[in-house]
Please model this.
Amino acid sequence: MGLDATDPRPAYQQIAEDLRRLIASDAIQVGDKLPSLAELQVKYGRAVMTLQKALDQLRNEGLVISRQGEGTIVVKKPEAHAGDDAPSPHELREMFQQINTVLDDLSRRVSAVEAELSGRKPSDPQSDSDAR
Model:
């Protein structure tokens, strides 16, 4: 996978996610080595520091360990819930926008009901200050 320029996540997070998918796949097993930094640099076209940050994420999750002179070794497969069924950042953004739209609509409706119950017009500034 190449990096997605439209993905709002930093490159290291996208790389970590791609490596996580590789580890979860049948293409690599516990005990196998991940590609070297030089190979990752060719694949992703990013600086070594960016790649190290991606590998740090995987180490922090307990998926890999790194040994000087030996490389990065897979020690655990990711949890099943972190698979391909997880929504993408773009899908999450769309869901949040839909939720926000619904909440805005509900807020307007509640304000109208409160105004009706208090006998004020919804645009009456007193209705907001009296409610507090």
About this structure: The chain has two domains: 11-82, 89-130. The two ends are 53 Å apart (CA to CA). Strands lie at 64-67, 71-74.
